[in-house]
Amino acid sequence: MEKNAAAVMGEPVIAGALVLPKGFSKKNAIGMGVGGVIGAAVATAMGSGAATTPGGHHGRLFIALSPTKLAFFEAKSGLLKVKLGRLLHEAPRSSVTAFDAGGGALVAPLHIVLADGAVYELETPRASRKRIARIANELGAAPGAQQSA
Hints:
By secondary structure, the chain is of the alpha+beta class. 28% of the residues lie in helices and 37% in strands.
């Protein structure tokens, strides 16, 4: 996915990771646990709350960090693997004012704040934690960026 993201961004991708909108895991677990039409109705009623996501996207996302940009892409489920979808938001790397990755057993909170006022509340699945840590470390070297692990 990094190669495809690099082609869209016009520069190499240093690090990338799959993330989820806040509440995505919980909503899917409840929907799957209840099952069928009732589960879908419960999941829809729960909504996404006040949490914001890049482009208002409610599915999986791919974050890509390049030497000068931070970009958010839609992540589409393919037959065998996840594929890169459309570009949802792109910001200068220097505009990242906070990139805070918390801890958790299965999913960890991820809080991203941009200088333009955008605040993204996301979740990091366990499988993406090392990749998110790499993005956080890379951004820690950027002026104005804060990080916590």
